[in-house]
Amino acid sequence: MEACSELKQKYDACFNYWFSERYLKGDNNDSMCSTLLTVYKECVAKAMKEQHIEVKDVEVNHLGTDQEKSVPPRS
Fold it and tell me: Any idea what DSSP says for residue 74?
């Protein structure tokens, strides 16, 4: 998902600014970074689709199960 790295950096910078300069000073309106977040999420979703990665596969917790040490099936 290297294609999304620049978008992530831009979103992270915006979020860090918002958090330190606004949220911690009482302004909880987080809309200033929402466009960047949307574009970044779309990029990640596209990259995942191109790599045939399903969101449900990412969300599964394998720690402490037999699947933790198993090799994932190849497509």
Answer: P
Rounded to 5°, the CA angle 55-37-24 comes to: 120
pTM score of the predicted model? 0.70
Say if residues 39 and 7 touch (Cβ distance below 8 Å): yes
Q: Region of 26 please: left (phi>0), alpha (psi -120 to 50) or beta.
A: left
C-alpha–C-alpha distance, residues 74 and 56, integer Å: 16
Neighbours of 30 (CB within 10 A): 14
Name the H helices within 2-75. 5-21, 34-50, 55-59
pLDDT digits (tens, 9 = 90+) for 32-44: 999 999 999 999 9
Half-sphere exposure of 16 (CA within 13 A, CB side): 6
